[in-house]
Design goal:
The protein is α/β, with parallel strands linked by helices. It has a single domain, classed as TIM Barrel. The protein has 11 helices and 12 strands. It has an 8-stranded parallel beta barrel with strand order 1-4-5-8-9-10-11-12, surrounded by 7 helices. The protein has a two-stranded antiparallel sheet with strand order 6-7. Strand 6 and strand 7 form a beta hairpin. The protein binds ligand PBG. The site of ligand PBG has 11 residues, from helix 6.
Length: 323
């Protein structure tokens, strides 16, 4: 035997030297839920360890995460039912607590990167990402609403806009709106290959944003399709996206890989709520080692080709890394 791969694994120093994939806190984006009010830290029942925070409670939490090396956050608003309507008008209302929180956070922590979703669902009385008429999700009529939402977020100081709605043409429409209003520096991380997945449940619990009727299959992608992800990626790239996201991550590592191979802009992946909930549940039962499983999952997403990873594991992983 003249070739023995085990020689390159014989000590931790050698293993570290030949390690092909690195994962650190700089690769992580931490999704956090925000709720209007004071003194709130409500645990999401289907996503243990994750909370709906009020802004006053979130500030010390962000300080703690920054000390652990986490600098990028994606904040999602849990909007009171009474503020939801057909056209998601609260998403760009002047007194919107979420937009105020963006201002507060960017003012207090200028060095953090703040990302935000653009889609109607958290603000929509129909619980859909687009405008609903006679049971249909209208595409072109949704775009002006998304533009208003994106512009309001840019005005509040957001760094990265994340269109998560899957309407056709929304990246171009949002890019144009941002640019003509002078927000040429605001980035777009497009939810490019976003699949109609069973793994979004805990997120919808957190925001109470599940569709009131029907499902999202006329706009989110069919989990069976890979070539279609290349088409979506090409469109988002040409429409001006700065980064392309694949979502969910774990059942879609092949999609992350194929986008990384074919596009020269950063690829990100959203390790979604249901994927994290599975691990929390198994760890709670003592069926697997939480820290090791999380580290392996995040590494695998990086190995598949993701530059950045949105994950609810961000803080726990950062603590584990520090140990
Ligand atoms: C909203 C949105 C969803 C997620 C991110 N943005 C839910 C959905 O599309 O129904 C899911 C994230 C997660 O499950 O962690 N459009």
């Amino acid at each position: 035997m003249n070739i023995r791969p085990r020689r390159n694994r014989k000590s931790s120093s050698i293993r570290a030297m030949v390690e092909e994939t690195k994962i650190g806190t700089e690769h992580l984006i931490y999704p956090i839920f925000l709720k209007d009010g004071k003194g709130l830290k409500e645990e999401v029942s289907s996503l243990p360890n994750n909370y709906r925070w009020s802004i006053d409670m979130l500030i010390p939490e962000i300080e703690e995460c920054m000390e652990l090396g986490i600098y990028t956050y994606d904040i999602f608003p849990a909007v009171d039912e009474s503020l939801k309507d057909k056209v998601a008008s609260y998403s760009y209302a002047d007194d919107n607590f979420y937009l105020n929180a963006i201002r507060t956070l960017k003012d207090k922590f200028p060095e953090i990167v703040l990302m935000s979703d653009v889609a109607m669902d958290p603000y929509s009385s129909d619980g859909h990402d687009g405008l609903v008429q006679d049971g249909k999700i209208l595409n072109d009529e949704t775009l002006p609403i998304l533009n208003k939402m994106a512009l309001a977020q840019a005005q509040a100081g957001i760094d990265i806009i994340g269109p998560s709605d899957m309407m056709d043409g929304r990246v171009e429409s949002i890019r144009e709106t941002l640019d003509i209003n002078g927000y040429t520096d605001v980035s777009i991380m497009s939810y490019t290959a976003k699949y109609a997945s069973a793994f979004y449940g805990p997120f919808r619990d957190a925001l109470n944003s599940a569709p009131k009727s029907g499902d999202k299959k006329t706009y989110q992608m069919n989990p069976a399709n890979k070539k279609e992800a290349l088409l979506e990626a090409e469109l988002d790239f040409l429409e001006g996206a700065d980064m392309l996201m694949v979502k969910p991550a774990l059942c879609y590592l092949d999609i992350i890989h194929v986008l990384k191979e074919n596009f020269n802009i950063p690829i990100t992946a959203y390790n979604v709520s249901g994927e994290c909930a599975m691990i929390y549940a198994a760890a709670e039962k003592g069926w697997l080692n939480y820290d090791l499983a999380v580290a392996e999952i995040l590494l695998s997403i990086r190995r598949a080709g993701a530059d950045g990873i949105l994950t609810y594991f961000a803080k726990d992983f950062a603590k584990f890394k520090k140990k």
